[in-house]
Specification:
InterPro entries: Glycoamylase-like_cons_dom, UCP028431. This is Glucoamylase family protein. It holds the Pfam family Glycoamylase. The protein is mainly alpha-helical. It has one domain: Glycosyltransferase. Helix content is 44%, strand content 10%. A three-stranded antiparallel β-sheet has the order 2-3-4. It has a two-stranded antiparallel ribbon with strand order 1-15. The longest helix is centred in the N-terminal third of the chain and has 23 residues. The relative contact order is 0.13.
Length: 442
């Protein structure tokens, strides 16, 4: 008996030693991606607004009831795509995913719409508009286009499924085709960001490139019900060719005018439109969008490595400037002296993994292995931080969470790119606008 006791004790101690060693073994790249993608996905699953199932505008861990019924349209579109990725990765069952997506789309169908466009913010418990600003109390065509991008992916993923899935696909198709893109021209050859019954065109924000809005023009051209002609794209988005404004940072070139940001705008400009719209090989008369998105990411990375403003914590494994929470409110951080506030947002590097895989993986690993206690929470990495200011808020923004889930999936499998690019209406829209892409069928 005594020998058996010691044998069992030795086995137990050996097992404990092995397990302890395992705890110290770094995660493989795939395990790290699984971990980040799964937890960030939970923002749109476990953290969703209860009544609508849609994406909450923000979630503050230290203030769980703060604006907890306000949902945001763009992040809901990203979340829809993220749920598809979650189903495909078996983070949730297919049936549960269908049920949640049906709930979200039913909410969107009944929520306030303005010529088919949703507002920027919606109360999840009522479906009524929450004004984004004084005059912004109606349709937001840019945020709506992000939803449309997600709805196309829903249609393509479920169109050949069982009866419930086919009904979901049909509802997704119906909702995006009810968006009256042509109305938002305001009878001009450009798309306007906003319109409301009360303030009409008072926001007066025509949308020109280059920024996050390319997919709005693509969806507008793709619409078989309320579409636009190519001249709206050429005179609007491309400004009759004035979108072309070559520049470079340390011999990494940019082709387009980035709204006054000579080294590239906030990095989300390389993400939001390209969650479904595959930028790789995507060219038109004005430039190559895949090269632009990659080079914008590389410049953003190199700026942080160079760290011309000598901020603490900037280096090759900790980088990424985009619009996010900032030490003083919210800011559009970018690689430019007046726009770099010493604030890094993990979403910037993570969502750029399709363009900068080595640099993005290095940042994810560094943050997870070395700064997890300050930067990591229930729904993945917190929105932003500043080592210079010793500032580590436990806050999330839906619009920054969504691209991480989707772009990690596109990096791993290309799933959302495949779904969006195979859509027959999207294909027709891209051809109408004169795009070339290896993903366009003849």
């Amino acid at each position: 008996m005594k020998n058996i006791f010691y044998l069992v004790l030795i086995v137990c101690l050996t097992a404990c030693s092995i397990n302890k060693k395992k705890l110290n073994v770094p995660l493989t790249d795939n395990q790290l991606l699984d971990t980040i993608q799964y937890h960030t996905f939970q923002y749109f699953w476990d953290g969703a607004e209860v009544n609508s199932g849609a994406a909450r505008e923000r979630l503050h861990i230290d203030q769980p009831d703060y604006e907890n019924t306000v949902v945001t349209t763009g992040a809901t579109g990203f979340g829809i795509m993220g749920i598809i990725a979650g189903i495909d990765r078996k983070f949730v069952s297919r049936d549960a995913g269908v049920e949640r997506l049906t709930k979200i789309l039913n909410f969107l169908e009944k929520a306030d719409r303005f010529h088919g466009a949703w507002p920027h913010w919606i109360y999840g418990d009522t479906g009524k508009t929450k004004p984004f600003s004084k005059f912004d109390d109606g349709g937001d065509l840019v945020e709506t286009a992000f939803v449309a991008q997600g709805l196309v992916c829903v249609k393509q993923y479920f169109k050949n499924g069982n009866q419930k899935e086919k009904e979901l696909a049909a509802l997704a198709d119906k909702l995006w085709k009810e968006i009256d893109f042509d109305w938002y021209r305001n009878e001009k050859n450009v798309l306007y960001w906003h319109w409301s019954p009360k303030n009409e065109w008072k926001m007066n924000l025509p949308v020109y490139g280059f920024n996050e809005c390319l997919v709005m023009y693509v969806m507008a051209a793709a619409s078989p019900t309320h579409g636009i002609n190519k001249i709206v794209y050429d005179e609007g988005w491309a400004k009759n060719g004035a979108i072309k404004s070559p520049s470079n940072y340390k011999n990494t070139p940019l082709q387009f005018k980035h709204q006054g940001s000579k080294n590239g705008g906030p990095l989300f400009w390389a993400h939001y439109s390209f969650l479904g719209l595959n930028p790789n090989g995507l060219k038109d008369a004005y430039g190559d969008y895949g090269i632009e998105a990659k080079n914008q990411s590389l410049i953003n990375y190199q700026w942080c490595v160079d760290n011309p403003l000598s901020y603490k914590g900037y280096h090759s494994q900790s980088w990424g400037l985009t619009s996010s929470y900032s030490v003083k409110g919210y800011a559009g951080h970018a690689p430019q002296t007046e726009k770099d506030k010493g604030v890094i947002a993990p979403t910037a590097a993570i969502s750029s993994i399709v363009y900068t895989p080595k640099e993005s993986m290095a940042a994810m690993r560094y943050w997870y292995e070395n700064k997890k206690d300050k930067l990591w929470g229930k729904y993945g990495f917190y929105d932003a931080f500043s080592d210079t200011e010793n500032w580590y808020p436990t806050k999330y923004l839906g619009i920054d969470q969504g691209p991480q889930v989707v772009m990690i999936e596109n990096y791993r499998t290309g799933l959302l790119w495949k779904l969006f690019m195979q859509d027959e209406d999207v294909q027709a829209g891209l051809k109408k606008l004169g795009f070339e892409s290896p993903h366009l069928k003849n």
